Amino acid sequence: MKLFSCGDVVPGCDAQFEHDSEDGILAAVAQHARDVHGLAAVSAELVAAVRSAMVSR
Predict the structure, then answer these.
(1) What's this model's pTM, rounded to 2 decimal places?
(2) Alpha-carbon span 3 to 50, nearest angstrom
(3) pLDDT above 90 for 5
(4) 3-state DSSP call for residue 18?
(5) Shortest CA distance to 29 belongs to which of 1, 45, 5?
(6) Closest by alpha carbon to 34, among 46, 45, 51, 22?
(7) Which of 12, 13, 16, 44 could be bridged to 6 by S-S, CB 3.0 to 4.6 A?
(8) Which tens digits make up the pLDDT trace of 9-51?
(9) Mean pLDDT calculated for residue range 51-55
(10) Is 38 left (phi over 0), alpha (psi -120 to 50) or beta?
(11) Among the residues of 1-57, which ranges form H helices?
(12) How far is residue 39's CA from residue 41's CA, in Å, rounded to a whole number?
């Protein structure tokens, strides 16, 4: 199981994501980034930051 806390990349955001795969986390985070943070596209830098902040549980 993978866990990601958006606040680890975007200070002040308390959204958390849990999925059995990195791809599942990345899909949920991409949707969150569009809906909540207003990002039209997810950059390679953001993907790298999310991957590095994920933890296994």
Answers:
(1) 0.90
(2) 10
(3) yes
(4) strand
(5) 5
(6) 46
(7) 13
(8) 999 999 999 999 999 999 999 999 999 999 999 999 999 999 9
(9) 97
(10) left
(11) 22-35, 44-53
(12) 5
Question: 19 by DSSP, 3-state: which?
Answer: strand
Instruction: Compute CA 56 distance to the chain's CA centroid, rounded to the nearest angstrom.
Output: 14
User: Position 33: which residue type?
Assistant: A
| Contacts by residues 26-31 (CB-CB < 8 Å, ≥ 24 positions apart) | 26/50, 26/51, 29/4
> Which of 40, 31, 29, 38 lies closest to 6, judged by CA?
29
Closest to 15 (Cα-Cα) out of 24, 6, 23: 6
Encoded amino acid at 17, one letter: F
Token pair in block for residue 20: 């059995």
Structure tokens at 38: 């207003």
